[in-house]
Amino acid sequence: MWLERIKGLKPGNNYIRVHLVKPDSKRILQHIPIGAFGGWLLAVHPPTGIVFNAGFLVYQLSQDWKLKGSISVKDIMGWLIGLGAFAGVWHSLAP
């Protein structure tokens, strides 16, 4: 295994964990599709998109309020990235 040769790691070593993506980045990446779906809903059927996106924000803010110090900010950031990416693609493809 290439990782063993590079760092001298042995199989079954639980003390060293290799993350290709940082845990915070995983939360952001998980919520990008939700933002893109929310953008698509806004484009196809605006009332449904507004309800979906408002519901997502209310859920994230209530989760942050209940858990005190949760990582809802990262979830909202991923959602906004997905929403913005979809809006950019949608706008560039519009006639």
Question: How many β-strands, per DSSP?
Answer: 0
Kindly state the percentage of residues in helix. Answer: over 70%
- How would a textbook summarize the main sheet? none
Mean pLDDT: 80
Euclidean distance between termini CA atoms: 51 Å
Order of helices and strands: HHHH
What overall form do the CA principal axes indicate?
Answer: flat
Low-pLDDT runs = none
Strand composition percent: under 5%
How many distinct domains? Answer: 1
Q: How many H/I helices?
A: 4
Write a structural description.
With 95 residues, this protein is mostly helical. Helix 2 packs antiparallel against helix 3, helix 2 (23-44) crosses helix 4 and helix 3 runs antiparallel to helix 4 (72-93). 76% of the residues lie in helices and 0% in strands. It starts with a helix and ends with a helix. It has one domain. The mean pLDDT is 80. It has helices at residues 2-7, 23-44, 46-67, 72-93. It is built from 4 helices and no strands.
How does the SSE layout of this entry go?
Elements: H1 2-7, H2 23-44, H3 46-67, H4 72-93
Helix pairs in contact: 2-3, 2-4, 3-4
Care to give the gist of this entry?
This protein is an all-alpha fold and 95 residues long. It is built from four helices and no strands.
Relevant terms:
95 residues, mainly alpha, flat
